[in-house]
Design goal:
Layout: H1 2-107, H2 114-129
Helix pairs in contact: 1-2
Length: 138
């Protein structure tokens, strides 16, 4: 009978040890999963921080680009206005120039050569606008 009691006690202890081993294995598996999750979380946190920095840089660059576009558009509008003014002045002065040259010729007088020089300067400014594109796509 003592043998039987000892056998039962041994079986009970063996069962309890098995349960403890199973619990320890569950705890070990749990800790492994937690550690893996923490490692992934650390990597994710680093990536998220880097992504936010990159997004901030891009936003800043976009703001600078938008401001540059706005500034360029204002300058293009100003250039269009100056070109229109320059062409209008040229049209008026072309008529005056012809009158001056004809009158001087009719009267036999020489007109000041600065008139030719200034007309050429104005003509060159107008000519330089012919290849200038004021409709730059943005």
């Amino acid at each position: 009978m003592n043998k039987h009691v000892f056998k039962k006690i041994a079986e009970l202890e063996k069962t309890q040890l098995s349960e403890v081993n199973v619990e320890l294995a569950l705890i070990d598996d749990f800790n492994k999963e937690i550690n893996e999750g923490v490692l992934i979380g650390d990597k994710l946190k680093k990536i998220m921080t880097e992504n936010q920095k990159d997004a901030d840089i891009i936003k800043k660059m976009q703001n600078e680009l938008d401001k540059s576009k706005k500034d360029l558009q204002a300058k293009l509008n100003l250039a269009k206005n100056y070109i229109a003014q320059l062409k209008a002045i040229k049209n008026r002065t072309d008529k005056s120039y012809i009158e001056i040259v004809n009158k001087a010729s009719q009267l036999g007088f020489d007109y000041p050569k600065s008139i030719d020089t200034n007309k050429n300067i104005l003509d060159n400014y107008v000519k330089s606008t012919e290849s200038y594109d004021v409709n730059i796509p943005m």
